[in-house]
Design a protein that fits this description.
42% of the residues lie in helices and 14% in strands. It is built from 18 helices and 18 strands. The strands form 4 sheets. The protein has a 7-stranded mixed sheet with strand order 10-13-14-9-8-15-16, sandwiched between helices. α15 links the parallel β15 and β16. α2 packs antiparallel against α6, α3 packs across α4 and α4 runs parallel beside α6. The radius of gyration is 25 Å and the shape is globular. The N and C termini lie far apart (82 Å). It binds nicotinamide-adenine-dinucleotide. Nicotinamide-adenine-dinucleotide (NAD) binds next to α8 and α9.
Length: 512
Amino acid sequence: NGIIHEGDIPKYEPTSIDQIDKIYTTLNERFNSGKTYSLAYRLYNLKQLAYLIKDNEKRIHQAVYKDLGKGAFDVSLGDLWPILNEVDLAVRRVKGWMKDESRIWDAMLSFKFMRPRVKKQPKGPVLIISAWNFPWQLTLIPLVGAIAAGCPAVLKVSEHAPSSSALLAELLPRYLDPEGYAVVLGAVEESTKLLEKPWGHILYTGSGNVGKIVATAAAKTLTPSTLELGGKSPVVVSSCANVKIAARRMFTIKQMAAGQCHRLCIRYAVSHLRHDATADQTIANGNDRSVAPDYVLVVKDKVDEFVEACKETLDSFFPPSPSPLSFLHTPQSSSMRNDADLDRMISYLDKADGEGKLVNRGELNKESRRLGISLVKTNLNGEGETGGLVEDEVFGPVIAIIPVDDIDTAIKYINARPHPLALYVCSGKRSVFTKVINETCSGSATWNDFGFATLARNLPFGGAGASGWGSYHGKDGFDTFTHHKAILEIPYLFEPLMSLRYPPLSNAKKAV
Ligand code: NAD
């Protein structure tokens, strides 16, 4: 019901700089002790992470509500279940992932006898820097990968989700090995201090501008890094698309960070739904993920039909005031992070209104910083559009519809911009999807639905080019934090063969 008991959320206090040095030393000692290598240690901490979430689900709901105004259902489905899902996979598979990987089959005959293989070794203590918009998932899914890989980890959580960050700082040492895993609270100063140190790996989630700072700092200590950045995620709507389905699916991800395709998620979702009568009222505001659709390239003969389908969908999802189900009357609607972000959205809409391009203005409540989903229709092929909505990462509840001549123009438009994190194609024919994915580059691509790639624990999650490098989730998270060491064994028994290359070279050897 959105009621916050102040006492349930610990106070946010930045970690002192001295403490950061101590944490670094402790984690290195833990790693050097070899304890984090064992399967038992990894399994224990993975399971403890699941208990941390399950035991404290209500407090986590309260913290995220306080930070971002997100409803309980949205938090469980979008933030917590993906973590449990990843823990579930890691617990089942980590033993296999840790095993040496034989490379005997592709080896030359003489090398086959040397037992060529790849040994998986933890890279060492790692640094995970996360963003505010999914404060639990963006911190703890990377942690699952680090634990599975046998790496101690420091979690530098976001200052823009202070309640979640403070709660995690309280809970983590109670559940996981406090000498192996630690939370650092704070902002730029604390991040900078952490980035001065050499790590086994750094995984950063956030904006591209800070990503450049992180990559530069990592280069100075020669630390490998993974950057999970933002950008604009386009949708392509072809002339054979079912626009009603496209609109419904698109606004579902824009309004709720979800996608419950896994057994575990469904089990939790079902049990949770039984207790949460307000679940169907939960509304987020589109700043939920950087994989949220950002703009829609619609083939021109389909534009009017698509705009109509969008309006109908928004009316049915969020009936306008004074309906008790309207956006403004929904107690668990998600808010914008701060006034500046809300003002940015309003200025997009005011500008579009002035130019006669505003199709739908979402309901606004400045006090709670809530804005309903809004639509803007730009010029054909985006011509003459500069700056603002069409060039910035929107990261909010505003979608630009850009009519295009055809699919080739849509592809050209995407390729003229930095590579997106996610790309979506709505079409009745798979061949259209295949053409778009073959001719563009993006972190992920999905045909006819939205956001599912982030929940597929068997697929790498990451960007391309400006939307980031490296990936994690599932086995890819394990691999990110694992050093793949090449191993060959050449026993003394092989000496007759090996001695052939010793100098001086005889004529017979030279002939060989
Ligand atoms: P943020 O402000 O929470 O910053 C992210 C982290 O960087 C925080 O922990 C913060 O303390 C740290 N940080 C900030 N300035 C720093 C500096 N100068 N030096 C070192 N560390 C610093 O989050 P944000 O950047 O506003 O996040 C929004 C962006 O993140 C958007 O672009 C969004 O698309 C992207 N994002 C990407 C993903 C993904 O999975 N690829 C997920 C969520 C958000």
